[in-house]
Each structure stands twice: as C-alpha cells, then as structure tokens.
Give the backbone structure.
Amino acid sequence: MDYYNLMRIFAFIHLLVSIPHGYSNYVETKAGQFFSSGHTNNWAVLVCTSRFWFNYRHVANTLSVYRSVKRLGIPDSHIVLMLADDMACNYRNPKPATVFSHKNMELNVYGDDVEVDYRGYEVTVENFLRVLTGRLPPSTPRSKRLLSDDRSNILIYLTGHGGNGFLKFQDSEEISNMELADAFEQMWQKRRYNELLFIIDTCQGASMYERFYSPNLMALASSQVGEDSLSHQPDLAIGVHLMDKYTFYLLEFLEEVHPASQANMNDLFKVCPQSQCVSTPGHRTDLFQRDPGSVLITDFFGSVRKVEITKDTINLTSPVEPPIQRSGSGDIQIESLTYVDQLPVAEIIHQKPKQKDWHPPDGFILGLWTLILLVFFQTYGIKHLKHIF
Amino acid sequence: LDSRLPLVDRSDGTKDSESFTAAAARDQFQEELVIRPLHSGDIYASFQFRTLWDIDFLQERQKVSHYRLFPKSLGQVLSKFSVRELHISFTQGFWRTMQWGQPFIPSPPGAELWVWFHDTVSDVDGNWKELTNVLSGIFCASLNFIDLTNTVQPSASFKPLGLGNATDHRFLRYATLPREIVCTENLTPWKKLLPCGSKAGLSVLLKSEKLFHSSFHSQAVHIRPVCQDEQCTSKAWELRQTLNVVFDLYTSSQGKKEWSLFKMFSRTLTEACPLATSSKIYVDITDNPELFELNPVTPLLSQAVVLGDRRTYSVFDLTRAETFGQLCSLNLLLRWKGDSGMNVFDGCDMLRPLLHAERYVAGFGLQTGEIHTVIYNNHPYRAFPVLLMDSVPWYLQLYIHTLTVTSKSRDNKPSYIHYQPAKDRHRPHLLEMLIQLPPHSMTEVTVQFERALLKWTEYTPDPNHGFYVGSSVVSALVPSMVAMNTNFTQDQPLFSSFVPVKEESSYFVRVYTEPLLVNLPTPDFSMPYNVICLTCTVVAVGYGSFYNLLTRTFQVDEPSLPLEKRLANLIRRIRGVPLLA
C-alpha cells in the first residue's frame, strides 16, 4: 500500500517535471518549423508566348495563373507578367476589357486590377532570358525586373505552342530546352533563387525540362514527349477556345487553395489525370532536395508571410508639423510670369535657321584650285607641259 | 499609399528649414466631369482631375520628400530628369471631328509623349531615353520602343502650355507610337495616381469594362508649371489627369437615345472625394429643352466660353449633400425627346468645326506612294494660318521635291518651312510648314515617297499587318465667334482652363489626323528553310548521280554454291586441285 502510494507520488512528480520540458520541446519544434522552409519572399514569372486572336487560350491560361497567384498573396511588384498579344482590348473581342476562362462568360480572369509588365513585341526570347538572369539595361524600371535573391522561391509558368525540345515565341523565334537549362544554371550560380517551380503547358512540354541540371528545381508539364496538349472548350459567342485542359484543371484546383491551406505538391501532381486531360502530365523532382509531400502549394503560389504576434503596446508619436516656409527668398524681384504664346506667327516666320554644318565660303574651293594650277605653271613653265601631256 | 502619410522630421528645429519643405497645406485637388451629348446620339464624357502643388522641384536648395496629394512616382521622375513639362496620352480610337466637334483635350491614336526639359540639362537625349523607360514601367506601356528612330524635335510646334519665357526648341522632344494598345493594364496605374484612387469621388465611375467598350477612349497625364494665383508671381505645379470617352449609341445604349450615369459607367455616385476641394459635374444643356431633358434638375447653371462657343452647363456640386437626394446616390438621366428613329441634323444645328484635317495614302503597289494631307477651313470669311507638323519614319523615303501645297486649285506657298531629312535607321523625317488657309477652302499637301526594304531582323513578328505612320498635327489659332475669357481665375471650370488664352478673338486648337498604315515589301520568312531543303535535295541528287557515273564499276558476282559443293571445294583446296564452278 505504501509502496503503491509512493509510486503514485513519484509518477505525479515526474509528470509535473516533464510538462514544462515537453512544452519547451513543443516550442522548439514550432520555432524549428518557423525557420525551416528556407524562403523569405516569393516571385512569379508568367509568360504567354503566342500572338494572334486564335491563341486567346494561351493568354487566358497565363491570366488565370496570375489571378490565382495574386489571390494567394504575391503582390504585383513581385510578379513579372509577359503577354505577347492583347486579347482583352482586341477589336475582335465581343466583350472588351475581359478575358474569360469558362464558357458562358462565367469568370473574367482579366479583372479590373491587372499590370502587365512586358507586352506585345517586348515578349522575346532575349527579354525572357534577361529577366531570368537579371542582365537588363540599367534604365529598366523595377516593375520589369526579377529582383530575387538566394531566399526567393520563384514560380515560372510558360504557355504557348511548343514541340520536342523547343517553345515558340510569337511565331518568329524559339527557345530550346538547353537554353532554358543554362539560364537556370546561371540563376543558380548567381544565387538568384532558393527553390524554383517550373510549369509548362504546351505540346510535348516534358521535353522542356529534360535537360535541367541545376539543384532545387521542380518541374511540371502538361504532356509527355510525343503527345499534344489539348484545348478545353470553345465559347460560341467569342468564337475561340478559351483555355487549355491542363491549366483549366489547374485553375480549378487552385481555386480551392487558400493562403492557409496545407495542400502539398503531391496533390498538384495529381491534377488533370489522363482521363480528363487526354495527354499525360509529367513532373520531375529528382533535382529537388525536399520531399514533394512536404512542400506546400503556398510555398510557390502564395506569399505566406510569417507573422510575429507581440503583446506589448507601442506608442506612436504624433507627427511633427513642419513650419510653413515662404516660397523663395525676399530679395528676388517679384515679377509677373506669363504663359508662352502658342502660335507666334511673326516669330516663327523670322526664326533663325538652325546651325548647319560648316561649309567653306562659296567659290573657295574653285579659287584654291586655280591658285594651285597658277603656281604650278609658273614654277615649271609652259615648256615642261609637253612632258606631262 | 505610403506617400500620403506625413513623415516625421528628423532635423532639429533650430536650424532653418531648408532641408525639407512643408507640403501639408499647399496642395489641392479638384475633380470634374463634363457630359456633352453629341448630335449623332452618342455621348461624350470628359473627366479631369487636377492636383495643384505650390512647390518648385527645380530649385536646388529644396529637397522634396513630403508628398501628399501629388503622386510620389511622378514627382521623383520630374526632379530626376529636370522636366519642365510632360504630356503623355494613351488613346484607343480616332476622334471624328466632323461628327463630334472639337474635344476638350485632343490626342492622337496610340501613345503620344512630348516633354520640355529644363535649360540646365546637358544631355537631353540621354534624359529622354531614361525617361521613356521609367514611364513605361509606371504606365505598363511599351514606351521603351521610343528611341531616336521615332523621336523628333519640332522647331515651331508644341510650344509649352505652362509658364515660361525662353523657348529653345533644343529642349523639346516629341514621339508617338501609333501601334500602342490601350487596355485595363494602362488604366490601373493611371487610377492609382489619383489621390482617392478608385474608391471615392468621380473615379468610382472608371470601370474598364464600360470604358473600353466605346468609340473613343483617351487617358492622359499633363504636368506643367502654372500661375499660383491671379497676380502670377510664383509658380505652382499642376498635374492634370484627363480621361475622354465617347459612348456609342448602338453598342452601349442599344439604339435608345437615353443616357444615364448607370448606363454609361454601370455605377452611380455616392460621395465626392474627401480630399477634393471641388468636385463637380457639368452637363451641357445648351441644346436643352428642344433636344433632351435632364433629370434631376438643378438650379445651378454656369456659362462658359470654350472652344470659341458660349455653352450653358447644369452644375452638380458633389461636395454638397443635397445633390445626392434621398437615396444618397446621384444618377443623372438624359432622355431625348421627339422621335427615336433616325435623326436628320444638318450642319446648321451643330456648330460646324472650323478646322478639320484628313490624311490618306494614295498610289498602288509596294514601291511608291503618295501621302495626301487635306486641311479644311470652314470659316466663311476669315483666313488664318496653321502649322502642320509631319513626322514620317525613315522607311518611307520622302521625295521633298514633289511636295505641293494647293488651296482652291492654286499653289499656296508656305511662309515657313522646316524640313529635316531622315537618316536610315537613325532619324525620321520632320516637316513643319506654316500655311495660310484661305476662307472656306480645302488645302491639300501632297508628297511622294518610296518604300524601303528593311533588313529581315527589323520586321515585326506580324509584318503583314503593315507599318504605322504617326498622325500629323495641325496647330492653329482659330478665330472665335464669341469673345474668349483671358482672365485667369481659380474657380474657372477645368475644361475651359487647359489651354492658356492670350487674346480674346481666337482660341488655340490642335487637330490630329488619322495615322497611316502602309505595307512594306515583306519577304517570305519561311523561304530560308525552303531554300535550304530544296538546295540540299538538288545538290544531293545531282552530285550523287554525277559521282556514281564517274566512279561506279561493275563486277561480276558469283552466285553462292550449295553446301555440298562448298565442302567439295574445301577438300579440293586442301588437295591443291582446281575448284568447281
């Protein structure tokens, strides 16, 4: 009986001691999770490479990924959106300023708040590679640059027409899978990404990620080599196919994702199986260091911010009103300023001509040659002329 | 949004405040919407948002760091590139002067940018190049395609619209991109420059789905120094954001001549922008009551002389709560009276525009052509001079010796001609002429050109669309029927105070012609591949046959023997005896 009581007391004391220990373990694991995902900012590069009205679906593909990415938290300043042609305000569009992804005009993926960074003729292979590698001319504005660092997770989405080993840009040039792999290697060597997710929706898309050799890359494609990616559904009012099958089901999947969701990459690999997509989507994870099951969708598609809650109050000081300064100093003579005359006819007619290039005065060259000939004949005399002629 | 919060001053208060400027109480914002029904049944709405800021960016002593209503992105651009005036516009569609009259703020199709730099700038071209790149990032447009091949330096047109005395045209640059597309991605950053964004005031009406489903849409930003007050002793910076839109009767209103704010913009107004000192809507009722009726009726009326005509406007002041009525929302309704069928209006009812210009390409084939610019002077008895500015890209090689200017089938010699020839791949043509237009006449300017063959890398990805030539600009001081107002007052409506008026008898107007679309001789880009295939096939077949002919020899081939004969041959070889056949 005593022994039994002793054991109970002993177990109770042990329990009391282990609770704070367990709690500190819990805190440590939570802190460990806090710092484990490795990335501090998210970027997205979304490219549509096709021109002309019948390639409406490629623009709709890119805009639906743009919409999902914005919805999940990546701001416009961290998204580089490249659209090779304008479908929304195209004169063939029966509903201007809209791009629809579902038939019967259910979802307008263009929206009211869109910022396209590269448009029209600017979407070229050279500009795309320059954006990735960061080698842009110095006067390029910030919204057109990919300012990522070694703690950035980047999502790259390409769509358009492609083939075995290449992707066509604007019907006039191509990018090959080797060029793309080399660009990613340059990014790795310059430490421009922490992890990179590459999604491509073209025919024979898997050929584009075959040649990757840099670490921390994960790739998804809508079809294998030798297969075509197919478009989803046409809209009879607009007259073209609205989306491609793979991106359509990808959009449906992403609409279920919210910023706090725990969906991981294995769910993304299951998007659009062959029964729905007709082509076989492929993926490549051998270069990726973490297990895909532990990678959250929001690691790439969202910009989940880590929030630190504090219970202390912070006092904000009231803003200091700077004293109002009188404009100018007193000793400048105040004179009345006037507007410029818009069409001063008299002044225009009597305008001095602009400075032209300097020409020698008239007749100078002629006089110079006459002088040379005179001196020549005087020196050598007329009797020597027969030696010349 | 950060730029609107006041910054905490770090310098100690004892030093004089030269390192920062107070901007808290020195900028003001006004917004205005003018609705003008047009005779064809369409309706013209013109938004103007003006921010006036009493500061001088270009004074060296003052460093501006406190932005309140003036957008910080534009302020930094102005001070970094020493810009004196900046005018940029994005337009979709073409303004039909003969059907719609004159616009309040004219603009050519596509994108247009003209900038006056300050005299202290030493490298104007370098500043221009960087400025276009920065603006392309701010407005999400491909303005980085502006380079020396489409920039011109006009010598007499585009005088500054703001204050100033010296006008050395070396500091002016003008460029236009006729191919530039305008869509929501240009409207979004434009709306973000407004103090109230798109959340309050008149800017809630700017919905892209309605604005781009129109016959004409133009948004512009104009920055210039203006007089701060009536004495005009100091300068203030004025930023005007204007948006002109013409809604078509048949696409937006289904043929019914009834317009309301809700029908035009899919929205009604509920409040004025809280940061605005004045927020007004002007409805042009000069043709009321014969033409249409306006609901709700307001007692406030205002008369203004604009574009040479005295018009009466109904004014709705949004800063007063009673404008919004019982329902706390304002929806103007204009309903046309009379028959709703086809309207027949002859020119007498509408004030016929006095100046009008057209442009087209004549000729056939892909080698030569002729550009015709036609300018109409519709004034019955007055002649006035116009300044015509033409900027033609280098790949249309103009023959200036074929330039003719004829009015009323007689030669009309311009009193001023400035021509700068093009340099291939460096500079476009610039032609400026001051032409006196006789009254009630048509003047035609023709010049012949030849099309150049570009290098194959210079073609766009869709070369069969054609190549654009920017609009011509016709600037004129048109005699006015009504005396113009030369006084500058603070409470003048914005639409009548855009262009400074110097004399009462005329007003300044700028007319843009259509842009031209010319086809250049385009090679077939699949030909290199076809040529390689064909040549290789021909070479292979031809050379291969020739090689065979020269080097082929015939050998007799023995048929293979059956097994027992081969064994017998083997034994015979061992024995040394002649072999079987």
About this structure: The domain at 41-299 of chain A is CATH 3.40.50.1460 (Rossmann fold). The two ends of chain A are 147 Å apart (CA to CA).
